[in-house]
Amino acid sequence: MRVGFMRPEWTTRISLENLRPLASLFSEDLAIDLGTVNTRVYARGRGIVVNEPTAVALDESTGQVQAVGKEAKEMVGRAPGRIKVVKPVRDGVIADFKVTERMLSYFIQKAHQRRTLVHPRVIISVPSEITQVERRAVTDSAYRAKAAEVHLVEQAMMAAIGAGLPVSRPGGNLVVDIGGGTTDVALISMSGMVYSRSVRTAGNHMDEAIMNYIKRKYNLLIGERTAEQIKIEIGSAFPLEKPVTTEVKGRSLIEGIPKGCTVDDREIREALNESVSTIVNAIRVLLERTPPELSADISDRGIVLAGGGSLLRNLDKRITDETGLPVCVADDPLTSVILGTAKLLDDFTLLRRVVVD
Questions:
Q1: What is the pTM of this model?
Q2: Sequence-distant (≥ 6) Cβ neighbours of residue 101 within 8 angstroms
Q3: How many CA atoms lie within 13 A of 74 on its CB side?
Q4: 44 & 62 share domain
Q5: How far apart, in whole angstroms, are the C-alpha atoms of residue 6 and residue 1?
C-alpha cells in the first residue's frame, strides 16, 4: 500500500477553509445588550442565557462583591448600611468602570457555565450618541472581563434588526427604542443610519416623574419599585377607555409614618406627560430631517416601537395623534435589541456594515 504526503497547498486550504468554519461550530461568541436597567446575554447556539438587572451589591467596608443581577436588586432598601447596591450603567453609559467590569465578568462566566478559560468574541449594543470616551469604557470593560474580541453596535439598529425590519434594503425604516436610560430614534436604510438621535429620557425618568408627582401632590414618599409598579398598572400616554385607579403606599412626609392614597390614570398621565413629550419631540425632529423619498417610505411603513418603555399604554396612539403616522410595537419589544445583536454572530458581513468605528 502506497503512502503519500499531503501537498502544501492542500494543507493551506484545509486550515483556512475547513478549520475556521469547524471552529465556529464550537464558538463561545456572545451578544450583550448592556442596558441601564437590565443586561441580557445571548450565547451562540443556546439563546438568551442571562436576563438580569444591571446591578451589583458591594460591601463598602471590604470592597467585595456580595451579589450581582437579581440578587443585588432584591437587596435595594433591605440590606444593612455597609451593603451598597450600585447601578454601574446610567443613562445608557458606564458610570462606574470597575463595577461594570466585575458585572460583565460575572455575566460572561455565567453564560459559559462558570468556565473561566473561555475567551469569547463579544458584540455589545450601545446608545447612538455615546462619546468616544464612553465607547472606550465599554470596550475596555469587556476586554478586562476576558473577552477575546469586542465589537460595538448601535441599539437602535439592533432593535430594527430584532424587530424584523428590512434594514439592508433601500427604503426608510423608522425605529424608536425606549429603554431604561435612553430613547434612541433612528432612520435606517441600506444597513446605515440616515439620521439617529439619542435622548436621555426613558423608563427610569418616567419612574422618577411619578415619584416626584406623588411626593408633591400627596406629601407621600415612595420608592423606585413602587413608582415602576404604578407605571405598569395604570400608566398611559393617551386617555384610556375606562378610568383605573390603584392604591399607593409609602411614608408620609408630614407625619413620618406609613400611609397610603389612591391615584388614578389621569394623574399618572399628567406625571408622565413631560417624559412622553420629550420622546415625541425627538421623533418630530427626525421627521423634519428625513429626505423626501424616505418620508414616503415612512408614511407607508410607519414607526416601530421597541424597548420596555414602548409597553406604556397607548403610547402608540399618542405618537399617531401627534405625527399622523401609523405606529406599531415590535412583537417582543423587551428582547428586540438582544435578538438583533445575536443575528450578527452569524452574519459577519452585516456586522462589518453596522459596527461602530
A1: 0.85
A2: 140, 141, 144, 145
A3: 7
A4: yes
A5: 16
What is the total residue count of the chain?
A: 357
pLDDT digits (tens, 9 = 90+) for 275-310: 999 999 999 999 999 999 899 999 999 999 999 999
Q: What does the pLDDT look like over 333-354, one tens digit per residue?
A: 999 999 999 999 999 899 999 9
Burial class of 205 by CB neighbour count within 10 A (0 to 12, 13 to 18, 19+): buried
Pairing of strands 173-178, 183-189: antiparallel
Do 126 and 37 lie in one domain? The reply is yes
Cβ–Cβ under 8 Å, residues 199 and 182: yes
pLDDT digits (tens, 9 = 90+) for 16-70: 334 344 444 445 899 999 899 999 999 988 999 999 999 999 998 888 899 999 9
Q: Is residue 185 domain-resident?
A: yes
The domain tally of the chain equals 3
Q: Three-class SS string for 75-110? A: CCCCCCCCEEEECCEECCEECCHHHHHHHHHHHHHH
| Same-domain pairing of 229 and 350 | no
Task: Give the structural domain span for 239.
Answer: 203-272
pLDDT, position 101 = 87
